[in-house]
């Protein structure tokens, strides 16, 4: 009678590896600063658009107003292009950063995450869940990255996310108003709504910088602390 063959050993599955977040964190913060700069330019261009559209709505005519309108439209269009380019570049680098800090957070606290790692990226693109999954994932990263003896509150993350969502909604309303605008008064109203969205986006970007830098610093310090100390024996 032959003895059964032993089961082959299971292959070792590599776990998450801690990687430095500082470089990506700083790059993300710089690009968020670029987003803020383009938003500020858009606010300035929007004020010009509102001013000239208001004058036309009030009955202003002549070559001077035409030149002002052309100049305002040029700056306003350029602002939109710059905002889009800055947002795309920042979004790509941000996703690289948030993926890295999520993996690091799994090293610090493997059981501290309510969503699987794939949602770190996918949560931004899946309709409906993108309204709350990214926030939840960042909160889990935030808590898992905190020092052993101290966990900061969530206020800054919650304010950032609230401003981001409100700015997105305001931007969509402004885009619809702009697409339907035909008269000078309607163009002025659409520009006012977009100005409101830009101001909200500036606030969200400022808070995003603070969140990125805080998580990056917490992870750097946590890595320097080493593994959690074992409890003392009584």
UniProtKB/TrEMBL annotation:
Q: Which InterPro entries match?
A: DUF4328
**What is an example of a Pfam family matching this protein?**
DUF4328
This protein's record includes keyword Membrane: yes
Instruction: Please give the start and end residues of each transmembrane region.
Output: 29-47, 75-99, 155-175, 195-213
Keywords assigned by UniProt, alphabetized: Membrane, Transmembrane, Transmembrane helix
Domain DUF4328 residue range list: 67-217
**Superkingdom per UniProt:** Bacteria
Name of the protein: DUF4328 domain-containing protein
């Amino acid at each position: 009678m032959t003895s059964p063959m032993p089961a082959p050993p299971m292959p070792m599955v590599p776990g998450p590896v801690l990687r430095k977040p500082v470089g990506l964190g700083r790059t993300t913060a710089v690009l968020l600063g670029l987003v803020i700069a383009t938003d500020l330019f858009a606010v300035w261009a929007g004020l010009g658009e509102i001013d000239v559209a208001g004058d036309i709505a009030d009955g202003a005519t002549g070559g001077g107003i035409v030149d002002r309108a052309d100049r305002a439209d040029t700056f306003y269009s350029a602002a939109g292009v710059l905002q889009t380019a800055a947002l795309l570049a920042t979004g790509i680098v941000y996703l690289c950063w948030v993926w890295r800090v999520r993996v690091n957070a799994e090293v610090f606290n493997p059981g501290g995450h309510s969503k699987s790692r794939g949602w770190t990226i996918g949560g931004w693109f899946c309709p409906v869940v993108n309204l709350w999954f990214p926030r939840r994932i960042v909160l889990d990263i935030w808590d898992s990255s905190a020092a052993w003896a101290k966990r900061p509150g969530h206020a800054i993350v919650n304010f950032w996310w609230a401003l981001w969502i409100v700015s997105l909604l305001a931007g969509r309303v402004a885009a619809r108003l702009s697409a339907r605008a035909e008269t000078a008064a309607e163009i002025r109203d659409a520009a006012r709504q977009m100005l409101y969205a830009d101001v909200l986006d500036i606030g969200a970007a400022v808070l995003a910088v603070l969140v990125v830098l805080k998580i990056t610093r917490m992870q750097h310090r946590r890595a320097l602390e080493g593994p959690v100390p074992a409890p003392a024996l009584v």
